Amino acid sequence: MNGRGRLLFWTIVLSVGMPFVPLLLWSFSERWFFPALWPQDFGLRAWGYVFTTAGSQILGGLTTSCLLALTTAAISLLVGIPAGRALGLYNFPGKRLVALVLIMPIIVPPLAVAMGLHLWFIRLGLAETFAGVVLIHLTFCVPYAIFVLWGVFSDYNPEIEEQARTLGASAGRVVWSVMLPMILPGVTVAALFSFLLSWSQYLSTLIIGGGKLLTLPILLFALMDSGDRPVAAAVSLVFVVPAFVALVASARSIGRRGLQGVR
Amino acid sequence: MLHPGTSSTPAVRPTGRTTTAGTLCLLLGPALAVVLVLFAGGLVLGMLQAGGYVPGRGLSSLTVEHVGNVLLDSELLRSFGLTFYISATSTLIACLVSVLLAMALVRLAGRSRTIYFLLQLPLTVPHLVIAISVLLLLSPSGLIARLGVTVGLIDGASSFPLLVNDPLGIGILAVYVWKEIPFITFMLLAVLKNMGTELLEAGATLKATRRQRFFHITLPIIAPALGASGLIVFAFTFGAFEVPYLLGRTHPLLLPVWAYRNYSDIDLLSRPEGIAIGLLITVIIIVSIVLSHLLLGFARKRGITV
Amino acid sequence: MGRLELRELTIRYGAKTVISELNLQLQDGEILSLLGPSGAGKSTVLKAVAGLLPPFSGSIAINGQPADHLPAERRDTVLIFQKPLLFPFLNVGQNIAFGLRMTGHRGAAARQRIERMIAITGLQGLELRRVHQLSGGQQQRVALARGLVLEPSILLLDEPFSSLDAELREQMRELIRTIQQQTKTTMLFVTHDQSEAFGVSDRVALLLDGRLRQTGPPEQVFYRPADVDVARFFGCNNVLPGSIRDGYFHGARVRVPTERADCNEAVAMIRPEDVRLYPAVPGSDRPTGRISGIRFQGAMSRLTVTTEDGPVSVLSIRPHWHLGELVGLEFPADRLHVFPAGQEK
User: Where are the transmembrane segments (chain A) (predicted)?
Assistant: First the structure.
């Protein structure tokens, strides 16, 4: 890399890494009074709290968040793959309208939707339940999965399926052994999108879950209000790790396409 | 809408395949059910509640009182102004930096794998975590203030400029800019890579200088992607709750925070007003989507397919 | 109008030398075709001349002035690419006007130049079309007009018609000649297609393996190849082994006068259409062979005749021979090209 390339590289390293510096320092600090630049005492109190004192609560939050995100991602794929196929491969009357309706919830925030559904979810017994929160997360995860898979299927040539049929594959086999392997990178991206969206969701979980469904973001918010900075910093880091892992684990399957389009 | 992968819009591709209505219903049915029942249904139910609808009493209980209260609230304009300022500013800064960053990265070509990976990291970090980090960095007792005291730039916390819970929303802007630059950059990189260097070479041999090549070739080519991702960012920041809740001031409130405050108020009478504000945000964002759609349609008519 | 002079031009990609020590001159108003197989480095030469690629060594002069230090946008050349590379966000008229807009030409004079080019390239009435609404041929004509409107000293064309079908290509060649007559623009035309090079240009320069092998009028390079490789490139694929002694080439059954120096191993080459076939005369000392293959190719048929020196390829109009027949061959002395064998690669 030349000089400008190196400058760019280190600027990016610094900018990306910057927010993690205070989180790491605070999570390992025992005593850190203003205006010291460095904690007076380092220690593992916060981490001990996270893993032992409040261990069951944090672990519970971690499990709830993971289950929630995985369930949402799985359903999003189940619903999104057929819809993406329809939009990517076929022309039909009213396609633009259908596409607009399906894609719109990506941008429109879940705020008003969650508020609107809340009262009815209470009457249906869905409020404060896992299923209810999955449903509210689906309102924005499904459109995102469709959005990604639409792009995937518009680059997909279905003639390869006909070829497989002439070579003796059954219709079910074609979906499993031909279509899915072909679109795997796109499916991984769509799954990752849905996972991350559900994973970092706060407000709609709070409204529908009513504070009873304790996901990590709900716990983290409560900790921020309690003002214990070291513990909040440690939980923040716990919150970041699974998403990192998901990214790294899927990096191979995603290939060069990267996470473009995630937000 | 822009879709990832390639930047061209699938709808205008000459795929031209058709299938039976039955197959289409099967493929699109579940998705339409989710979106129409949950999303559109949620909005309709929200409208009914904002209208004061009480399930037992039928449509006659509808009133414009709550919506009127919101629209006539003297705070609304200030709140809207602040929300708009935060969204517009963070979108503009993120777009500007992203264009420069994407141009620099596309020039680095093959040697940027590590940079690509680094830039993907912010995409996976929840807004909430970055908001907490910015609080620990920029607050009067934060890391930056400590650094200022240590090198002798400021005397103490009180002489540090207010960067969180501040009138200009610096802290909120910092979070959004950090989160959204990678998003827009990756959108632009796809287009720039697709475009390659051929058109620029054609431009050079047609006597366009470097500057002219940027403004007359590169910029028109990335404009649709830039516009679309910019509007997505604008809409998101306009309706997001966590960051302004943690880093914003209590007065005036940003629209989403105000909406939730009312919704979760002990006084159940302010609940319809909360929903009304939520719907107002939705309306503003739908208008911005329609705008972006028109803009893209316009761009498509002008032949921007790259 | 313009002159181009390339001196000792060497171009490298990393450690790989693509073009070595190329010397070439274009006269005012001339069309020269740079001909060579794919991968010979033809486009590389054009990019270097256009200023899009820095040469490793050597110099480029336009109208007698060194141009090496000038970036592409300040050189008096325009490159027309293989693909039209029209700007998708501009319509036809705006595309053609692009270069003038960049150089600050506006107003009636610019308008007039654009209209003239539109007329010459036959694009009247299409000015307001979106470029993706045009056919491939029309797109390439827009690309031509867009370059020509800048009135460059040298127009560089990089296989501009290779993506078009045969009939359209023929029309485009005519167009290039017409444009050249009307504008007197000096053109350097790169192609891998012999007939295109012969049909378009005043002179042809043959580039093989990064080196210029022969330059001259089409008939000259075709009928008087300078070496074995050039002969082979133009389809002169019959090779008779022999030697040169006392001003004569001696093959197994041929003897032809030559001006080349004595040499123990030499070859005589002849084009398939120059070989004549006769009914075999038993006992003659003329070369004979047996027809071992007949392939009908339309106007001509390609015959393979197996002789004691190996197979000989013959192109013949309406042949009355049949498979397995014994024939006598005649290699007219004035059609044989004699080269020392060491030259052959």
Answer: 7-26, 46-79, 100-122, 134-153, 174-196, 202-224, 231-251
